[in-house]
Specification:
five-stranded mixed β-sheet, alpha+beta, 14 strands, 597 residues, single chain
Amino acid sequence: MRTKILGVLLAVMLLYGVLSYAIERFVVFPSFVLQERLEAEKDLNRCLEALRREIHYLDEFVHDWAAWDDSYAFVQDANMDFIRSNLVHTTFIDNRLNLIMVLDLEGRVLWKKIVDLKNGLELNITQFAEDCFPLSHVFMAHTKDIESSVAGVYATDKGPLLMASRPVIQSLHTGPPKGYLIMGRFLNERYMKTLADQTKVDHRYWLLHDTSIPAESGSIFERLQKNSGPVFEKQNKNMLFAYGIFKGLTDSSDLIIRAEIPRQIMKYAVNTMFFVLISTILAGFILLLVMFFLLNRVVIGPLGKLTERVVSLGNSKPPLSPLFLDRNDEIGILCCEFQMLFNKLTQVHKNLQQTNTHLNHEIRERKSSQEKLQSHRTRLRQLTYRLLLTEERERRRLASDLHDQISQNLAICRLKLSMLKASCTAVNRTRAMEMEEVEDILEDIIQETRTLTFEISPPILYELGLKPALEWLLENTFSQSGIETLLEGDLKKNQLDNSLSILVFRTVRELLHNIIKHANASQITVSLSQEASFFEIRVTDNGVGFDPEKQYKNIGFGLFSIREQFSSIGGKFLVLSDPGTGTRAILRVPYHLKHII
């Protein structure tokens, strides 16, 4: 039992561990993943907001320059003093500007300069090569408001450019505008490093068609177009990439931003889940030991002692005192009940032993009575058969006496009466007629004597055999009852004992008598067949039939007597019949009689 209970506790502990792990894996862990992505999205938005803030600061700076009387005058007269005083190289260096361009209202370039701040050289960029920009250009997409602004990212062949365009107005913010002031900064590696330092998030920007986009980020744009929010990609177990899009001034100016987020949350999550799992296993193991110790002390141990006591109760001679009398719980009650049950079973066992002894004595007496009854029954069968043979010998003796003495004496009387009648014919006619009547009476007596002789013991059975005797019996049955009879089959000569022939003949005559008396049949068929060790006789009629089992109980010397007689010689007698279907009696007789004591 200890092993089973320990196994059950281990199974419960294992199930608890599996459930705990499943909850951590499918409930707690996804919440950490969601929290990680929410934090990554916040960092990505912070990066995008830093870029917007830089564009906003650039736009405010351009606005300060554009709303200036000197700039307003320069757009109108293009004086060189403004250029020498303000549009110098230090202006680009101090304000980290790569582009300053002044346009009139028609889009003509009044002044422009593009500088590489790293080496101080001027740059030639295809997008700014024209001397006149169309009025539909994005730089001049201002509204009628003098405070309108065009600011954002603009794609160039030197990389993305943060630019801002403002209408040139007077210092008091009055118009009308006389031109446009455009300034810009390249979003290069150095600038990106500055933004990363500001946001404390490592991130990069690429134009959509930038060839320098890493291979692992090349297919992100399609995924960003399908999703309305950011796209996350696991770089490894320590780094998560968050991608987003920053809309530019033109479709080709859109930026892909990639924020590299350290997976600290997932690291903490994995460590926490591992700690919780280990803690759960240890706590469960300790709980398992405590539960097993308590169960062993409170339940398993007492049950083991109770089991040993129950096993030893059958072998213990003196009565044993009950266990755990001081316990009022189920174990104590169970021990008391077991002791009471044992006392009752002991008394019942004694009673059963006495009853068993008495029953064994009765069984022996009954067996002895049955053996005696069987012996008497066997003896009775043998006596019945001997009585049958003795009866048949007496019948034959009586028939012989009737034939040899009475019949012959009657025949002599009839002969002498015939002679006397012949001598008296001429003398007294009346006396002759009386003698003739006496002669007829004698003839009837002789005929009845012969018939009685055949009925008592037909001589044809001894002189010609069983089959001719059966033929005579069937003919006699037909002549007396009018029932059509038929004998089928044949018997070999000298095959049957005389005793068997007598028994078969008597049995067939008994069956014919029963058919005539009870069956109301119109046809009787007797069939003979022979096998290697026995021969069989079937007596069949088309009468009303009967229930053989009931008939056996209600008859005296009839079918029951026939069955007993055939059983005593080792033969079989079977009757098959149903009410309304006729009857078929089957006699199976061995060729030689069993030994009769």
